[in-house]
Amino acid sequence: RSRIVFITHDLPRAEIEASLRQHLAEAAAAGASGAGTPRPAASGSSATSDARWLNEAELGRLFSALAAQKDRVAADALRLMLLTGVTCEEARTARWEEFDLERRLWLKPVPAARRSAIRPRPRRIPLGDAAMMLILAVQECGSGTGCVFAGPGPDISAARLDAVWAAAARLAGIEDTPLEALRPVLAAGLFRGLSPALTQRLLGLGDPDGGEA
């Protein structure tokens, strides 16, 4: 998890927080209007929109919209992406052997194209409470081996994720943000302080009694 530390003198905390919120809002607005650097599309095609971030209100609506999607596997892959700050491709190709659930870690191997002569250690991606709840629910419904989000092939297709993202984004009122334009997001803070029951519902996992969310 990344942190920003402000070391100040005679500067109220509220003033710092207000300034930071204003800066983030301006950055998000700039991204929506055409600023930023696009990243490759999930489907492998070139990006057609400029990259931008999502704010907390947009993320809240997006999780609610994902809970309404019928394609649960694709929605879960997108949820894992948002909860851990990884790219869509990393979530799509996640494998069970990469997860150390006892230590609440996702040990993501560095892609071969980025490796130097010395093989680097895998990235250590912490799994927060919401991410753990999601991955355990996925494990319970699947085989627990191979790809986490399996499709007809070895893993779920990028096109399938694009389709679910487009439907959820439209429902959440952020249809101006296609998946290929999304900057990596860490939405774990959205769940901080929520009860397990509310977290389950926001993750589309249903209630503790097994009902629908």
Overview of this structure, please?
The protein has a 3-stranded antiparallel sheet with strand order 1-2-3, with no helix packed on it. The chain is mainly α. Residues 35-49 and 208-213 have low confidence and may be disordered. The chain starts with 12 loop residues before the first helix and ends in an 11-residue tail after the last helix. The chain has helices at residues 13-33, 56-67, 72-84, 88-92, 129-141, 158-172, 196-202; strands at residues 99-100, 105-108, 123-126. It is built from 7 helices and 3 strands. The protein is globular. Helix 2 crosses helix 6, helix 3 (72-84) runs antiparallel to helix 5 and helix 3 packs across helix 6. 40% of the residues lie in helices and 5% in strands.
Give a quick precis of the structure.
The chain is mainly alpha-helical and 213 residues long. The chain has helices at residues 13-33, 56-67, 72-84, 88-92, 129-141, 158-172, 196-202, and strands spanning 99-100, 105-108, 123-126.
Quote the average pLDDT.
Answer: 81
Shape: globular
Helicity, as a percent range: 40-55%
Strand order of the largest sheet: 1-2-3
The number of distinct helices, counting runs of at least 4 residues, comes to: 7
Radius of gyration: 18 Å
Structural class: mainly alpha
| Percentage of residues in DSSP E strands | under 5%
Distance from N terminus to C terminus (CA atoms, Å) equals: 29 Å
Note the run of SSEs as H and E.
HHHHEEEHHH
Largest sheet: 3 strands, antiparallel
Poorly predicted ranges (pLDDT <50, ≥5 residues)?
35-49, 208-213
How many β-strands, per DSSP?
Answer: 3
